[in-house]
Amino acid sequence: MTKVISVHSFRGGTGKSNSTANLAVLIARQGYRVGIIDTDIQSPGIHVLFGFDEDNMQRSLNDYLWGRCPVEAAAYDVSAVLQGISRDRSAIYLIPSSLRAGEIARVLREGYDVGLLNEGFQSLIEALDLDVLLIDTHPGLNEETLLSITISDILLLILRPDHQDFQGTAVTIDIARKLEVPKMLLLVNKVLVSFDFVALKSEIETTYNTPVAGILPLTEEMIRLGSSDIFCLRFPDHPFSQVLATVAQLLMS
């Protein structure tokens, strides 16, 4: 049974795509076949972490949505990042959204059939024999985000220790509960190391009545990396990577 995990945040800038990419690698290293689909069509970006740019993306999610190809034709095998992993089943497939200005403008101007997304998710799972599908959502609440939340087995909400994030997360949790999402987890990112992590975790869990899967410290190494690589591969022993490894295990438990 494939596990569908939506990674979402109410506002941009939370580190959602970085977290999604790192979690995909950490889950795949446990021996799973993982798909990542970038449904942030208006402002795509997760492909950058896997070394893609406009020149080497021949197909994208946009091509599937416009009827140009089946969704699996837009999937790129990026399993090469799993260096030193001996398990035969481990694999990662990325379905990016287009970085081309014309494609983004068309989405903003015309929209698209959101129902195709659900069909695409199911087709992708079957075609690639996925154990896990990670959906990197568009921040905020819109039609495609609600669809992703509705079909998810797990909703992982990322937030910062910021009052605007706190308020937006409360709205998202309320809607997710009305949609009867089976499981919700919170991941707090960009927390100053001077904070009391234990107290912050307790406060957030009490406020939202939702488990906190992990608290990620704000790190200079992440800022310097600038989305040019997968952090947990570059810095496997870093506390940031260790927290994400725990989150990956929790997602798959």
TrEMBL record:
<dbReference type="InterPro" id="IPR050678">
    <property type="entry name" value="DNA_Partitioning_ATPase"/>
</dbReference>
<keyword id="KW-0547">Nucleotide-binding</keyword>
<dbReference type="Pfam" id="PF10609">
    <property type="entry name" value="ParA"/>
</dbReference>
<keyword id="KW-0067">ATP-binding</keyword>
<dbReference type="InterPro" id="IPR027417">
    <property type="entry name" value="P-loop_NTPase"/>
</dbReference>
<protein>
    <submittedName>
        <fullName>MinD/ParA family protein</fullName>
    </submittedName>
</protein>
<dbReference type="InterPro" id="IPR033756">
    <property type="entry name" value="YlxH/NBP35"/>
</dbReference>
